Amino acid sequence: MFEIKYRDGAGRIGIIKYKNKKLETPTLLPVINPYKNILPIDIIKKYKIDAIITNAYILYRKKFEGNIHKFLNFDGIIETDSGSYQMLHYKKDLEITNREIIEYQIKINSDILNVLDIPTDIDKSKEEAEKELNITIERIKEGIELKGDKLINGAIQGGVYIDLRRKAAEYVKNLNVDIFAIGTIVPYMIKYNFYKLLELTIEPKLLLPFNKPIHLFGMGHTLIIPLSIYLGFDIFDSASYVLFAKDKRILTPYGTFRYDEIRNFYIETKNKIYHIEEIKDYNNEELIRILAEHNLYNLIKEIEIAKDAIKNEYLTDLILIKAHTHYSLYKATKLILGKYYNYLKSLEPIRKRSGIFYGGELNEIRADVKRALERINERVDKKDIEDLFDYIYPFNSFKNVK
User: Distance between CA atoms of 156 and 170, rounded to whole angstroms?
Assistant: First the structure.
């Protein structure tokens, strides 16, 4: 079902095969509102997107009973959300059972199912988080019994508690799920607390096998996608491209900017580039549509650049360059490279196609350089070759590293 084609570090390019459909990862699943779709599906198709995600709970409330592929006019893979986000966002239980929402997703011909997992909020106690985690696991088991020939996500939750997330991973990895799915903490994303966000996702990931793809729920920002791919995550979904557009915010490779605060800027889409002054007189609906397409274009571009980096083995260079675009990302990259060095070095190729890009002090802790220095120290007496460090790239920058 999942075949890995290329690897660089923990990052990988894989193929998910389902019936007569194929999905190449890493990939972004745009969130589609089935009834209020700001960006028409024909525009989304221009970007050669092979999978989308929509909300089964909204469809259920609207009493939709048809085929979701025909309804959305999309032949690729469709994943359906169970309504868990609504449960978290609106702080209320949904008037539907886990069995009902799973059977409904099957009825409307969804390809990838989600159980009614409980994404524990940031303010929950550990006892509450563990209770919700146990409920989620039981719901996954029920989903596996019902899924038939559909694919199903195995949701790994646990809130802000790393030990509970690791416990969840230990449970879920032994279940017959098709995709591992790790819940993220929205407030950490909003506050750009990237290190904590990634720590809560990578800790359970360390316990998961490599033979299945991993979906990061709701992780859709240009700053954090490359580092997430470097750490081995495969599938991302996000409504950020639309939500930011509605709030007149623009996604760029360097972060998010407010539309009314920038000057001499170009809004990019696949087939057209607009100068920002050109669209200021557009009506609100058309303006939001253009900004949403720009945001989606930039998210997809981050994915495609990362895929090229994996194929040509410069993924570490890419994340170091990216780290310098925002202080929060720089700090997260530095902490992640340090804390998870043993995990990362075990996946780094011994040989690569090209040399390395100089990334400042981060070069000293990148897995390939640090491992190379360790191997030299194991094999030779540094005193005998100390002068060579002045001349041999990349070690000429690190001759004093202990």
Answer: 10
Half-sphere exposure of 379 (CA within 13 A, CB side): 6
Tell me the backbone φ, ψ of residue 293, rounded to 5 degrees: -65, -40
CA 74/CA 98 separation, integer angstroms: 26
**Do you find a cis peptide bond into 26, omega within 30 degrees of 0?**
yes
Confidence at 290, pLDDT banded by 50, 70, 90: very high
> Is the model's pLDDT at 392 over the cut of 70?
no
Q: Where are the domains of the chain?
A: 2-246, 319-397
Residue 152's beta-bridge partner residues?
Answer: 113
The CATH code for residues 2-246 is 3.20.20.105
pLDDT tier at 301, thresholds 50, 70, 90 = very high
81 labelled catalytic: yes
Helical H segments across 206-340, by residue range: 225-230, 240-246, 284-311, 315-323, 327-339
51-55, 262-266, 350-354: the lowest-pLDDT one: 350-354
For 88-118, b/e burial (b = at least 16 CB within 10 A) is: eeeeeebebebeebbebbbebebbbbbbbbb
Of the candidates 8, 50, 81, 234, the residue annotated as catalytic is: 81
**Residue of 185, 189, 240, 178 whose CA lies nearest to 215:** 178
Give the tokens for residue 208.
Answer: 């998961």
The sign of the torsion formed by the CA atoms of 325, 329, 331, 337 equals: negative
Please say whether the beta carbons of 256 and 240 come within 8 A: no
* Alpha-carbon gap, residue 235 to 29, rounded angstroms: 7
Reduce the DSSP state of residue 390 to 3 states and report it.
helix
pLDDT tens-digit map of 348-374: 887 777 777 777 888 888 888 888 888
